[in-house]
Design goal:
Blueprint: H1 4-26, H2 33-58, H3 79-94, H4 102-121, H5 124-138, H6 146-172, H7 184-200, E1 208-211, E2 217-221, E3 245-249, E4 252-261, H8 266-294, H9 327-334, E5 344-349, H10 353-364, E6 376-380, H11 382-388, H12 392-395, H13 397-400, H14 405-408, E7 413-414, E8 417-421, E9 444-450, E10 454-469, E11 474-487, E12 500-506
Helix pairs in contact: 1-2, 3-4, 3-8, 5-6, 6-7, 7-8
């Protein structure tokens, strides 16, 4: 098994050889061929080992964390695959006008049997195994902070607790009761979807995820500071009643629909389900990251569509208007509105560690110091992250040693804070906004935020809802969710303006 110490040894050897070669060149001596060949060989080996680690790091424990049907027509399907298949087969077999095909009825009967087999297989041992594998999958990436890992563990534990609660309830029911414990498989579906979506997102797993028992839901925040006084002997000290607060989380719905024609027979539906579910999970993960970063309730000249007016019906852009403002809007507009505080900085230059990353930490003030505790992360677009590899501070071996990006090809942390790259953070124009008709000049952006100051909540996780339309001869599978996002101060920059900041107009990234 490859370990980081082996890579460090190889990279140190590369650095030592390079130093020897540089010294010879500086002294006017020509390096011998063996030294050059040795350096190339070691560098190649190091790059191969790094690649192995990256592949291993990037591998996700997905279906390994699920329980699956063992045999029959639906062998290999997990709870979510069966749910998606049911959406198509149930309508085709049971809701069509006239007599449904016998094969459709048989497939639906097999699906019901497969679903029951999953229910029968779920028990305490499986639930504990699911939780263990879910935690391992969620915490396996090296880019996440210890706090993010703890949040992942808490999320997995919450879903495992829910499954145990429902399982205990099913065992308490009379064994002869029809449909006893019917909640158990849907509960497993929710847990599996939570894991699938978190593994497919880049931004969502960073944040505290709060279940919403009601909408809106009041999220309690930490106590305020207390007052301290000198103590005098035999004199009662003055006490302080700490202030309390709450943040109101309001969930907003997002939905998409995929139609199936009657001509798509049941066998095609069954074969299509795993790929369809994987696509929907991937799309759901992308839209969740998208709204966390880019949501903007402003319809005209928003941060995502400058120069245009969008609405809740604008294809490809409507999701930004769902009802709350995301992190970029907070940094670009809300934070900057606070008197005497700037939460955005126009770089108007190429990237460097000091002018971008260090500057952002300084803008966070006391919330930037939390990088030591792991609550601060940098988030950038793909181009800016790649351009960051060329910063002198990290690219040159003379500055960064054997872990220099010129050899490692990776930049996981800067000033102790992780750098998270998101494909949902788009290139912007020189004013930091994305121009609707296309940017005049594509420039990069980097954001810094303190994760402890934000919460993402779900009133309803991802659900599948079929709708039969006989007149059209088709069934539409709707996929929806209800999500909320807010910071600890209800979006008020005046109360606490410095926990999220952004640097924009970073040039030389294309």
């Amino acid at each position: 098994m490859v370990c980081m110490s082996e890579i460090d040894v190889l990279l140190k050897e590369v650095a030592d050889i390079k130093t020897t070669v540089d010294n010879k060149v500086a002294a006017g001596q020509k390096p011998i061929q063996e030294e050059i060949a040795r350096m190339g060989k070691v560098l190649t080996e190091a790059q191969a080992e790094v690649k192995k680690l990256q592949v291993k790091d990037g591998s996700r424990i997905m279906h390994d964390s699920d329980i699956t049907v063992r045999d029959g027509q639906f062998a290999g399907f997990n709870a979510n695959d069966l749910s998606a298949a049911a959406a198509g087969l149930a309508n085709k077999a049971l809701n069509m006008s006239g007599q449904p095909p016998v094969t459709a009825l048989k497939s639906y009967e097999r699906l019901v049997q497969a679903r029951q087999s999953l229910h029968d297989a779920i028990g305490p041992d499986f639930i504990s195994s699911w939780e263990e594998k879910a935690v391992r999958a969620m915490t396996g990436s090296g880019v996440y902070t210890e706090q993010a890992r703890q949040r992942a563990k808490q999320g997995a534990a919450a879903y495992a607790w829910d499954m145990r609660r429902v399982w205990a309830k099913t065992k308490a029911l009379d064994s002869t009761t029809a449909a006893a414990g019917d909640e158990l498989v849907p509960t497993l579906e929710n847990a599996s979807l939570w894991l699938d979506v978190n593994l497919n997102t880049t931004i969502l797993p960073l944040f505290r995820q709060v279940p919403m028992p009601s909408n809106p839901y009041d999220w309690p925040v930490q106590f305020g500071d207390t007052n301290w006084y000198p103590v005098t002997e035999n004199v009662q000290v003055t006490t302080t009643t700490p202030s309390t607060g709450k943040v109101s989380l309001t969930a907003y719905g997002l939905k998409t629909g995929i139609p199936f024609s009657d001509e798509l027979d049941e066998d095609s539906i069954v074969a299509l389900v795993p790929e369809l579910r994987a696509t929907l999970v991937r799309n759901a993960a992308q839209v969740i990251d998208d709204v966390i970063l880019n949501a903007d309730t402003t319809l005209a000249n928003s941060i995502n569509a400058d120069g245009a007016t969008i609405s809740a019906a604008t294809a490809g852009k409507a999701q930004w208007t769902l009802g709350f403002n995301g992190l970029i809007r907070y940094a670009m507009v809300t934070n900057t509105a606070a008197s005497g505080t700037a939460a955005k900085v126009d770089i108007n230059s190429t990237i460097s560690a000091g002018t971008v990353y260090n500057k952002l930490l300084r803008m966070l003030g006391k919330f930037g110091a939390a990088q030591v505790l792991g609550d601060v992360v940098f988030i950038s677009d793909v181009n800016t992250a790649i351009a960051s590899l060329t910063m002198d501070e990290v690219e040159l071996m003379t500055n960064f040693g054997p872990r220099a990006t010129i050899s490692s090809g990776e930049l996981a942390r800067i000033y102790g804070a992780p750098l998270v790259v998101s494909g949902q953070m788009k290139l912007a124009d020189t004013d930091g906004k994305v121009t609707s008709a296309g940017n005049t000049t594509n420039t990069g952006r980097v954001m810094a935020t303190n994760l402890s100051q934000w919460a993402v909540a779900f009133r309803r996780g991802i659900t599948f809802e079929p709708d039969r339309e006989p007149g059209k001869g088709q069934t539409t599978l709707y996929v929806s969710m209800r999500i909320a996002l807010n910071d600890r101060n209800n979006g008020s920059a005046a109360l606490n303006p410095s926990h999220t900041a952004i640097a924009y107009d970073i040039t030389g990234i294309t």
